[in-house]
Amino acid sequence: MEQSVVDVRHVEKIYGKKNENQFRALQDISFSIQAGEFTGIMGASGSGKTTLLNVISTLDKVTSGDIDIAGTNITTMNQDALAAFRAQKLGFIFQDFNLLESMTVYENIALPLFLQNKTGKKVEESVEKVAEILDIKNILGKYPAIISGGQKQRTAAARALVHNPSMILADEPTGALDSNNAASLLETLKQLNEEHNVSIMMVTHDAFSASYCQRILFLEDGRLYKEIQRTGTREEFFKEILDELAEAGKKKL
Ligand SMILES: Nc1ncnc2c1ncn2[C@@H]1O[C@H](COP(=O)(O)OP(=O)(O)OP(=O)(O)O)[C@@H](O)[C@H]1O
Ligand SMILES: [Mg+2]
């Protein structure tokens, strides 16, 4: 049996307190992600994509339901345990990359290891290994302010990867990039996924970005209503995604 890295069961997220204005952002969501899968989440603005990513990434709590990540149920863990779990098992790529300007590229990449109180030779080895993969070994001593946009992305990808997480979570990672840089970040993610078997979950509303995934989950008003799997080329998948988005658009009219 294949090992699932994420198992989401009947998850519901309601924002707001009882007797106040409540909003049901996620309703009865269930799905699994196998180790090594590159999964996309798509849906209109407000459909619940970020909410779903946030509850899986342990940054926010579910109202009901269960989520297992790498075999651990995260819905019952306390804050301290969650922070430790996050630092150990998950890697994040944010829309604006969130690099710390006062730290060098090396220090930015090493951050997840520092957060686990790791020091010394081990940190150095891990940083150099991912820097090699992402081709940024020559800028490790520089500060984010003086490196290119593409180098910033690869630094963010290296930081998401340095501690061998079970999964990388990315929320609109190409949102702030021009098409060349977007394509190169997506190629990097694809490479990490295919050659290093890293599981990736990526929120995007862009069909081009989504076409790099093997599978897309579609959200509408907090519900998963459809899932498509890539069977042919990326170009074919791209067209299929565009068709699906057009279909979803028609329903709204
Ligand atoms: N903290 C909050 N309190 C109340 N409602 C919220 C909160 N955060 C999000 N929502 C609502 O939940 C719904 C889902 O929000 P979410 O941010 O998950 O959407 P999204 O699919 O990521 O949208 P976008 O594509 O615009 O980023 C929206 O209707 C939003 O207004
Ligand atoms: Mg969002």
TrEMBL record:
Stretches of the chain forming a coiled coil according to its record: none
Domain of life: Bacteria
Signal peptide (from-to): none
PROSITE patterns according to UniProt: ABC_TRANSPORTER_2
Keyword set, alphabetical order: ATP-binding, Nucleotide-binding, Transport
InterPro entries registered for this protein in UniProt: AAA+_ATPase, ABC_transporter-like_ATP-bd, MacB-like_ATP-bd, P-loop_NTPase
GO cellular component terms attached to this protein's record: membrane protein complex
GO molecular function: ATP binding; ATP hydrolysis activity; transmembrane transporter activity
Domain ABC transporter, residue spans: 6-246
Keyword hit for GTP-binding: no
UniProt keyword Acetylation present: no
Pfam hit, one: ABC_tran
Protein family per UniProt: Belongs to the ABC transporter superfamily.
Protein's recorded name: ABC transporter ATP-binding protein
Source organism of this protein record: Salibacterium salarium
